[in-house]
Design brief:
The complex is a heterodimer.
Chain A lengths: L2 H28 L16 E10 L4 E11 L5 E4 L11 E4 L4 H34 L3
Antiparallel strand pairs in A: 1-2, 3-4
Helix pairs in contact in A: 1-2
Chain B lengths: L5 H25 L9 E3 L4 H6 L27 E3 L15 H32 L4
Antiparallel strand pairs in B: 1-2
The chains are: A alpha+beta, B mainly alpha.
């Protein structure tokens, strides 16, 4: 496998992890109002993922993979809603620890990384086609 | 046949180097969000070494017995170095700056084009010299 196809493979692995990250962000955002059913129950907990490098033996390149999807252990928010079935004695309901602003920023970052990887693919492709042009 | 001619050899070395560098840069960009990842880059191509033809230090295992296995993958003649001194890094220890990597990518692209154009120019020259069109 030549270097230019290798760099395309690496960039594709980068795009894959970023789209998985985007999926997780959308999950967090979609569940930002998933409250508990009972006063003892817990609402949706935000998920975060980390990436790692992994050697792909078939091509001899190190690709990016999703390391782990973990739960964000930060504190839940509290909303005052006495009529909610999950409200405690003081009328507060635990709400997910999802901050839309943070999710949006994460989303922008994922998008930017994705685009950068796409640029790498384009660049590799143009180098490859330049090489082929030499035959003419 | 072309490999014996100095200019072709130089252009080829340059293109090889850029292709290899492209791979390293792709790795950096793919790892733009990996914690504690430091960007890498290839060591600059040494023109003198290319001219002297000493860029490829082929150090392989000696096979003194028929049962010895020679590794199929030959080590790359170019060396990737990790950038220890980086411009800035995020709180998770990642020091990849996308803009910087993109600039390097563009730089590699134009250098590659230059080397390829050089290659073609000389090819044409040989054609002209040999009388064919």
């Amino acid at each position: 496998m030549d270097e230019l196809s290798k760099s395309t493979t690496i960039a594709i692995s980068g795009m894959k992890v970023q789209s998985q990250r985007l999926r997780l962000i959308s999950e967090n955002l979609a569940n930002s109002d998933s409250l508990a059913q009972t006063p003892e129950g817990l609402p949706y907990r935000r998920k975060v993922m980390t990436f790692k490098n992994e050697l792909d033996r078939a091509t001899g390149t190190s690709l990016v993979k999703v390391d782990k999807v973990r739960a964000d252990s930060s504190e839940f928010q509290r909303r005052y809603d006495p009529k909610h079935p999950a409200a405690d004695r003081d009328g507060y309901v635990l709400a997910p620890n999802v901050n839309p602003l943070i999710e949006m920023m994460d989303m922008r970052e994922a998008q930017r990384s994705y685009e950068a990887n796409m640029n790498v693919i384009n660049a590799s492709r143009s180098l490859l086609s330049r090489t082929i042009d030499m035959l003419r | 046949m072309y490999d014996d001619l100095g200019i072709f050899k130089m252009a080829k070395a340059q293109m090889d180097w850029i292709a290899q560098r492209q791979e390293v840069l792709a790795g950096n960009i793919a790892n733009a969000n990996t914690p504690r990842y430091l960007p890498k880059d290839l060591k600059d191509l040494d023109f003198k070494q290319v001219l002297a033809g000493t860029t490829e230090p082929e150090v392989g295992a000696a096979t003194t017995n028929a049962k010895h296995i020679v590794p199929e993958v030959t080590p790359s003649p170019f060396k990737a170095v990790t950038q220890r001194r980086t411009y800035e890094s995020t709180p998770d220890g990642n020091a990849v700056i996308l803009e910087e990597q993109m600039a390097k990518l563009g730089d590699a692209n134009s250098k590659y084009n230059a080397a390829a154009a050089l290659f073609q120019k000389y090819q044409k020259m040989i054609k002209t010299a040999s009388g064919s069109r």
